[in-house]
Design brief:
- This protein is mostly helical and 383 residues long.
- Helices cover 70% and strands 3% of the residues.
- The protein has 17 helices and 4 strands.
- The strands form 2 sheets. A two-stranded antiparallel ribbon has the order 1-4.
Length: 383
């Protein structure tokens, strides 16, 4: 691996550090472009969900990873974007209008949520965002003239300049890929800008950031607005992919899934959003296999090893009951969160950085390299 010795500030803020990044990202982009032509419709559909979840992951990284503001209400922002698209489409408005409109409306709502959250931090901010999510879910269920209430709303295929873009087509795949790439580039450029550096200063120490003249309230609201706007764009794509939306689709569990995206992938780099999204989207196919395929394979293996057919049938039924048990998905989520927090708090992207740094510094690498040594001034010790 190449080690870059930086000699000026421009090298530090460069988007791609050296030519190796151009080659690696170019190959990855070429693979993603060729992917729809190499796999079936099911895998293509799963990758589209990965793209949508990754967009929300990038939005959460801006809010949580960059600015240090926790949120368990991003399912509500996703719902606002989805219902904005569904309602405006039903009024005959074009996609090229309601797509940015959904981002603007959701961003404005995110800014309004950011204002009351200015005096909150930690668990209290999490509780406030959960309350916001419950309020939005209740509004969606009660405002029947716009949202059709609990009956839900049908969302037609995208009509782009007279050309339909079906949710299972290659064009929709490339649209989601384009929005994801744009979101990643936005986050990367934001991180290199004075605004992004102000976000990071607020995350590391609000007292130090304030002493440097950073407007804490303004930047926190800006972070909420940007994060909500990106989530609103993901909501538009989500609505078109599902083709039907209803309030019970945007629950607290969905917000927890979004949080898991950045816990698993890593909250301190936008690449982690993609890794975490892949992990989360693959949970449902894993549960389906655990319920349908694994019991059959287990019974067949038991029969091959000499187990009686009746006993093998009971084993299959038992394994199927375990795989379809209520609450299994939540238990798996809880176990995954505990494992990553205990053993790899930096997520999969953090693990990759450690591996890369190991080869760069070998044989001088030390395990304590990534341990953050944080000192506190007297005014911060009791925060």
């Amino acid at each position: 691996m190449r080690f870059v010795f930086k000699t000026d500030y421009d090298q530090d803020i460069r988007l791609l550090k050296h030519s190796g990044y151009w080659w690696s990202y170019g190959v990855l982009l070429a693979v993603l472009i060729a992917f729809p032509y190499l796999v079936g419709s099911y895998l293509q559909s799963q990758i589209v969900f990965v793209f949508i979840y990754a967009i929300v992951g990038v939005a959460l990284i801006i809010l949580t990873g960059f600015t240090g503001q926790a949120s368990l209400g991003h399912a509500a922002f996703l719902a606002i974007g989805a219902y904005t698209a569904g309602f405006l489409q039903s009024q005959g408005i074009s996609f090229i209008v309601y797509f940015p409109a959904a981002a603007i409306i959701t961003g404005a709502v995110g800014a309004m949520v950011g204002f009351p959250a200015l005096r909150l931090s930690g668990i209290y901010l999490v509780i406030a965002t959960i309350a916001f999510a419950f309020i939005v879910e209740e509004i969606l269920a009660r405002w029947e003239s716009v949202t059709h209430g609990n009956e839900g709303m049908r969302v037609r295929a995208i009509d782009f300049l007279g050309q339909p873009i079906p949710r299972d087509g290659d064009a929709f795949y490339f649209l989601c890929l384009l929005v994801l790439v744009g979101s990643i580039l936005l986050a990367q450029n934001l991180l290199r800008s004075p605004t992004g550096r102000a976000f990071i200063a607020i995350r590391d120490s609000e007292t130090a950031a304030k002493s440097m003249g950073i407007d804490l309230a303004g930047y926190k609201v800006k972070s909420f607005a940007i994060s909500a706007a990106l989530t609103g764009m993901a909501g538009v794509l989500f609505a078109h992919k599902m083709s039907f939306i209803s309030p019970e689709m945007f629950t607290l569990l969905l917000s927890i899934e979004f949080i898991m995206v950045i816990i698993i992938g890593g909250a301190f780099g936008v690449h982690g959003a993609v890794l975490g999204a892949i992990f989360i989207v693959m949970v449902d196919p894993f549960l389906t296999a655990l319920k349908d395929d694994v019991p059959v394979l287990g019974a067949s293996l038991a029969t091959t090893l000499g187990m009686a057919p009746d006993a093998a049938g009971k084993l299959r039924d038992t394994m199927s009951a375990i795989g379809s048990a209520a609450g299994l998905k939540g238990a798996i989520y809880g176990l995954i969160i505990m494992m990553f927090i205990l053993f790899e708090p930096y997520g999969l992207y953090g693990r990759w950085l450690k591996v890369k740094l190991f080869f760069q510094l070998f044989p001088l690498y030390k395990k304590a390299t990534f341990k953050r040594q944080k000192t506190y001034v007297k005014s911060e010790r009791n925060r």
